[in-house]
Amino acid sequence: MQKVSNSDLFYRAISFYLEYHPLQLCLLLKSLEKKLDHSRVVQHVRKAGHLAVVEKYLHDVQHLNVTAVNEAVNELLVESEDVEGLRESILEYDNFDQLALAQLLENHARLEMRRLAALLFKKNRKFKQAIELSKRDRQYQDAIDAARDSGNAQLVGDLLRFFLSDLDDPAGFAACLYTCYPLVKPDVALELAWRHKCMDYCMPYLIQVVREVTTRVDALDKKEETREKEEEKQKSAPNDYVPDYSMPPTGVPLLPGMGGLALMPPSASSYAPPNAFGSSAPPPMMNSVSPGGLAQQPFPPF
């Protein structure tokens, strides 16, 4: 069979061994393991109604995490009620229809099988179903763990009410407060404890809440005090800016050899264009009076 290239002959050989040599079928499958389509093998053997005959082969190839193989193994484990084997298979090989198996197990006669159903619901984030199933089976620790893993404050609050209103179980109420502490609303816990007269069971939770609130308020006060000090320090700081008059304005050239003196442009008020007489002084006014009191005659025209 190792030299056969036609894969159809493999499955004909499986049918032959199922009919005439069923006890040697696992040896045949082991020798052809690398050439077989494991899903097709499971389908072929399941159709013949002899799935249990190849159980050893299924366990040998389950490490491949094939859906058909995982479902076949789980089916055989459920039939044999092998709780530990089924738990190991569920946790290690997850490639199968988990919700279908959970629905199959939730009504199983054995309690441990129903607990596996709750585990599957929780793994698939069906926390409400997991909690309800655990409450029905009185597996309250499983219900508390499922509520904690859900991260849902509403489910935790409903479970707290269940412990006090339905069960009148303050110890379960306290256990839920401890396990689901980050998800418990203080007003809900305080109201339930006060209404059902079990404040002693709630007091450790309340002490821890007050401690956390006080720590946060102290941290905020310290942060605010530091911020106010920084603001006051900035307001009271002197203005240390002193303009540097020794530096010329930008763009003003320096005189070489003059100690870096700037060549400042004349101001507009001190500058007058030269007149017709070659002087920058203003021209004499017509008919102006001389210092001696004589009228100064205008120049004759050229």
Task: Walk me through this protein's architecture.
- With 302 residues, the protein is mainly alpha-helical.
- The chain has a domain at 152-227.
- Helix content is 58%, strand content 0%.
- It contains 14 helices and no strands.
- The protein has helices at 8-20, 25-31, 38-48, 55-61, 67-80, 83-92, 98-105, 111-123, 127-136, 140-150, 153-166, 170-179, 186-195, 199-236.
- The longest helix has 38 residues, at 199-236.
- It is elongated and about 95 Å long.
- CHCR repeats lie at residues 29-172.
- InterPro entries: ARM-type_fold (IPR016024), CHCR (IPR055358), Clathrin_H-chain/VPS_repeat (IPR000547), TPR-like_helical_dom_sf (IPR011990).
- Residues 222-235 have a biased composition (Basic and acidic residues).
- It comes from Cystoisospora suis.
Question: Taking Cα atoms only, what radius of gyration do you get, to the nearest Å?
Answer: 49 Å
Count of distinct strands: 0
3D shape:
elongated
In helices, the fraction of residues equals: 55-70%
Unreliably modeled segments? 257-263, 285-296
Overall pLDDT, averaged? 84
Q: Outline the biggest β-sheet.
A: none
H/E element sequence:
HHHHHHHHHHHHHH
Strand residue content: under 5%
N- to C-terminal distance: 139 Å
